[in-house]
TrEMBL record:
Coiled-coil stretches noted in the UniProt entry, renumbered to this chain: none
GO biological-process terms attached to the record: defense response
Pfam families: NB-ARC (PF00931)
Domain NB-ARC: 1-152
Gene3D superfamilies hit by this protein: Helical domain of apoptotic protease-activating factors, P-loop containing nucleotide triphosphate hydrolases
Phylogenetic classification of the source organism: Eukaryota, Viridiplantae, Streptophyta, Embryophyta, Tracheophyta
Protein name: NBS-LRR resistance protein-like protein
Recorded superkingdom: Eukaryota
Length: 183
């Protein structure tokens, strides 16, 4: 479900000081409906491999060489990689083999996957290492609090009765989705 806060939650974890302390390297890659495995692997390499890693250098490598190079770098590190907005299982099947999780040091590594479709993470070689967190829509009370905070802020100069009736209509239409409430 879009707008429920998956990317926002992943971004909070990714940007938390704890992530910088616990992981040798971090990478965030937006996958989307149209993805290129080469581009995704190249982007991760650029973020975790240091200053010498460039798109131009990666363009000269085969897909297998990109996978091998990324695996060689990551197998020596504890890493956090976010694969954001994954729409298709095929994307994960092509990208995940480049991200080692079985080496001793990699036991501390984490891969966060955000997706609108829970089914894409259901395939054999990922199940044993998978923890699924499904954010739920906000309750009526949480929705009202968020909407009031965004709509009013610290203002006290408006007619609260008018605001309440309009707010109730808007809250009903937003269905507890945080993005709809703040947009």
């Amino acid at each position: 479900m879009g707008g429920i806060g998956k990317t926002t939650l992943a971004r909070k974890l990714y940007n938390h000081p704890f992530a910088k302390e616990c992981f040798n390297c971090v990478a965030w890659v937006f996958i989307s409906q149209e993805w290129s495995t080469r581009h995704v692997l190249s982007e991760i390499l650029r973020m975790v491999g240091g200053q010498g890693e460039t798109y131009e250098l990666h363009a000269k490598l085969s897909a297998e060489e990109l996978v091998d190079k990324l695996r060689d770098i990551l197998k020596k590190k504890a890493y956090l990689i976010v694969l954001d907005d994954v729409w298709r299982r095929e994307a994960l099947k092509e990208i995940l083999p480049a991200l080692p999780l079985s080496e001793d040091i990699n036991r501390e590594s984490k891969i966060i996957i955000t997706t609108r479709n829970r089914e894409i993470v259901h395939f054999e070689n990922i199940q044993q290492q998978l923890f699924v967190h499904e954010p739920q829509p906000l309750s009526k009370e949480e929705s009202r609090e968020l909407f009031s905070k965004v709509a009013l802020g610290d203002r006290t100069d408006c007619n609260m009765e008018d605001f309440r009736s309009l707010g109730m209509v808007m809250l009903k239409n937003c269905g507890g989705l945080p993005l709809a409430l703040v947009a």
